[in-house]
Amino acid sequence: MKAIITGAASGIGRAVAFQLSRNAATREGKAPQVLLVDLNKEKLEEVAELLRGEGVQAEIYAGDLTDPEVPAKVVAAAEKSFGGLDVLISNAGIIGRATLLELNLADYDRAFQINTRATWLLGKAAHPLLSASKGCIVATASMSAFQPTSPLGAYSSSKAALIMLVKQMALEWGPDGIRCNTISPGSTHTGMTDQRFSDPAQREVAAARNPLHMVGSAEHQAAAICFLASPEAAYITGADILVDGGMSTMLMKAAGAGDPWKK
Ligand SMILES: NC(=O)c1ccc[n+]([C@@H]2O[C@H](COP(=O)([O-])OP(=O)(O)OC[C@H]3O[C@@H](n4cnc5c(N)ncnc54)[C@H](O)[C@@H]3O)[C@@H](O)[C@H]2O)c1
Q: Which DSSP string do the residues of 174-221 spell out, in sequence order?
């Protein structure tokens, strides 16, 4: 298996790098080849070293995916190192806190550049390689794509756009043999949320917001991504898997909408 994983220095991308490589090694009985992409070169190198210790051919690309030139360079680096590509995991993303009235143009643009546009540019550049291998794309969206989440207006809308973008890819590129799907994480303990979920009080509050009473882990999200990237998902394209501990079922309860039927 030859894969590109973005946002691989931390959180969900890091967990995907390990799970995807281990699953492929077990399935194929040979060394997986992964290109790890992130802004953070030092942490990328740490992840790559650990993977090499497990027999994985791990390469790194340190770069900023908001630069429109970078996605094609990433794909060219994978082609040069591995001679092809089977799996593209477009996972790097950022969150930003501002109400729509406070939000400035630069922050709005940056949210869409990394959370939405990077997946299109990566997919476009990777299309010839994925078409040759009958490969797949999995992108990381968010449960915020389905519910307006103040003060995350640029984040929610960029993730909603990402889900539709990937459905569009599934429609246009399915005939070329490329499957394209997303996952939508709920509250998950990663680098992005560490400050909040390392605090036991805040963690308890977040856990109480879903029926499983859990905060998700990077590994929970990686498992869904790895399933969508696996041969077991051969008939799944244009789909989104919500990995939110059931939080999305809580709307009516939270709004008290069941109360008139209570005895
Ligand atoms: N943690 C959550 O609760 C949660 C919930 C919903 C969705 N998500 C999504 O999951 C994905 C992974 O996030 P995470 O939670 O693992 O966070 P994280 O901060 O631990 O990891 C994200 C990684 O993306 C990298 N990155 C950010 N901007 C980049 C850029 N311009 N170019 C290259 N790399 C860049 C960061 O350096 C970081 O290593 C993101 O798309 C995020 O929006 C996370």
A: GGGT-EEEEEEE-SEESGGGHHHHTSHHHHHHHHTTSTT---EEHHHH
